[in-house]
């Protein structure tokens, strides 16, 4: 099976895990340039007020470009407390939040220095809880696509790789807003629990390859 090459992402969207579940081992690029307004430091969840974006503040670099592996997390604005409160408020009435909350709360109590480490450990935790048994490694240099690799780094850009006909699943606020596709994978995990892998749809990979 092809190796899946992805960018690092904070509580990645469902499309990331669709890709991971469909391929072989996973490589996370850490030698790409950090870009704002991407899933590298933000995720989307469903709340009573609609879609909410949670953004991790990062330390501003003095250089015009910065590698993802060097991005440091800022303590600005008590974001850890705010993000956990947002997750708890959004999913406390979902079927599986109470079951999984102790797996996620420690991530918002511990201070991580680098964004890549925080993102990677969260992704591994979701894979573990979802029963996705794949090897995940960080790149050792900037990776060029090979014939045995599916390059899906573009999935870090919001709006790319979202299925035209997403596979709906039960969501807490579905009656109010309809089905909201490609949210953070924790939306799928907290709502569907062990059925997570069976609810993964397909990503139009041809539109994502870069």
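^ structure tokens above, recovered residues below v
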């Amino acid at each position: 099976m092809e190796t899946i090459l992805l960018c690092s992402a904070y509580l990645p969207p469902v499309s990331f895990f669709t890709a991971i579940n469909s391929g072989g081992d996973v490589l996370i690029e850490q030698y790409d340039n950090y870009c704002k307004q991407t899933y590298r430091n933000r995720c989307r969840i469903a709340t009573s007020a609609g879609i909410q974006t949670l953004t991790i503040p990062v330390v501003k670099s003095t250089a015009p470009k910065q590698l993802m592996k060097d991005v440091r997390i800022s303590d600005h604005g008590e974001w850890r407390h705010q993000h956990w409160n947002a997750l708890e408020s959004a999913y406390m009435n979902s079927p599986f939040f109470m079951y999984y909350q102790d797996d996620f709360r420690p991530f918002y109590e511990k201070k991580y220095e680098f964004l890549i480490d925080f993102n990677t450990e969260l992704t591994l935790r979701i894979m573990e809880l979802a029963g996705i048994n794949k090897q995940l490694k960080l790149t050792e240099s900037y990776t060029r696509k090979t014939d045995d690799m599916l390059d899906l780094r573009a999935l870090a850009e919001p709006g790319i790789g979202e299925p035209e006909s997403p596979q709906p699943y039960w969501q807490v606020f579905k009656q109010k807003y309809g089905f909201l596709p490609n949210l953070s994978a924790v939306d799928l995990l907290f709502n569907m629990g062990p059925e997570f892998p069976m609810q993964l749809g397909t990503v139009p990979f041809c539109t994502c390859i870069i």
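The longest strand covers residues 42-47.
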